[in-house]
Design brief:
- The chain is globular and about 50 Å long.
- The protein is α/β, with parallel strands linked by helices.
- Strands 1, 2, 3, 4, 5, 6, 7, 8 and 9 form a nine-stranded mixed sheet that branches.
- Helix 6 crosses helix 7 and helix 10 crosses helix 11.
- The protein contains eleven helices and nine strands.
């Protein structure tokens, strides 16, 4: 995730010198934030070390991921607060049949009994991600494992967009927002990844904790149309809430996003990073609106769209020899 200030600095540097941070077939321009959603779940098992490694090899700006906290305080990577039957096999190799238990009710050791490297065939999830390549044997990683993977790869540029999966509607499934966010920030600081990390959330209470506890870490406000709320943004109600949250980035659901909203967000000084855009036509259109980045399940398609638009591409991470 990039700030507008950083984008300006990068653009000036590209104009005045060789664009060594980008692919050689790129045109000089402001850096576009290419984010691999859950590590690029359209191609690899979501939120796994295998996915994060492959995304870096492909070439992305940012690894987007989700966090849960176990009962013994370990920050692990999972989109859901509960184990998902769509992706989770037990020690016998059988898929679990219902959602659960919650990570908050399990120890970290408990979580390591499950394999999350293959989608369950016949589910809506599997049908929606037909190109995902299975990688059997993937365990639920810790946030520190992701940081260590990146350090070991030698990639000094890739960033981390870390979502706190808490909800006021389901307070019993997770730690309270303050304690949850403190656990995440602690890991970020221990890894010395403050300047390369962004904390994002639909629950703005967690963003407030980051602002007070770790103002050096950027935040991103996630939004999505909800039944009974924010149906009409003609008066900028969503953007007003985002601006008031103190976040530097607005990350909206792309489905109802308009160019007028993108322009208004930029006038308010916000970085605009919509989610989750996968289809080539949608990618082309929304890149054309001047967004600062895109979160996608298909980083390969987004690279193609950026190349087509003459935008700079993040370099692939080459294996160390």
């Amino acid at each position: 995730m990039i700030t507008r200030k950083l984008a300006t600095v990068i653009a000036l540097a590209v104009v005045s010198s060789s664009p060594s941070a980008f692919a050689a077939d790129s045109q000089p321009a402001a850096k576009f934030d290419l984010q691999a959603h859950r590590g690029g779940r359209g191609l690899w098992p979501e939120n796994t070390l295998a996915a994060f490694e492959e995304a870096m090899k492909l070439g992305v700006t940012t690894l987007e991921l989700d966090c849960a906290v176990t009962k013994d305080g370990v920050v692990v990577i999972s989109h859901d607060a509960l184990l998902s039957p769509d992706i989770t096999r037990d020690a016998t190799g059988e898929y679990i049949t219902v959602h659960g238990p919650s990570f908050f009710s399990m120890s970290y050791a408990d979580t390591q009994r499950y394999d999350v490297g293959r989608l369950k065939a016949g589910t809506p999830y599997a049908e929606g991600q037909p190109d995902q390549k299975a990688v059997d044997g993937q365990r639920i990683p810790r946030l520190i494992d992701v940081f260590n993977l990146v350090k070991k790869s030698g990639n000094t540029e890739v960033r981390f967009n870390i979502e706190t999966k808490v909800s006021p509607a389901k307070p019993d499934e997770t730690l309270p927002p303050k304690e949850f966010t403190e656990a995440v920030v602690k890991v970020i600081r221990e890894a010395k990844m403050e300047k390369r990390s962004v904390v994002q959330s639909f629950d703005f209470r967690t963003l407030d904790v980051v602002h007070k506890m770790a103002p050096e870490i950027e935040t991103s406000a996630l939004t999505s149309p909800r039944p009974g709320g924010d149906k009409d943004d003609s008066e900028g109600s969503v953007l007003k809430r985002v601006k008031a949250s103190g976040a530097l980035t607005w990350s909206p659901n792309h489905i109802n996003l308009t160019k007028a909203q993108v322009d208004e967000a930029h006038r308010l000084g916000l970085v605009v990073l919509p989610w989750t855009i996968n289809e080539p036509a949608d990618l082309d259109r929304i890149i054309g609106w001047g967004v600062d980045g895109i979160i996608t399940d298909r980083p390969d398609r987004l690279r193609d769209a950026l190349r087509k638009a003459g935008r700079p591409l993040p370099n692939p991470t080459r294996p160390r020899t």
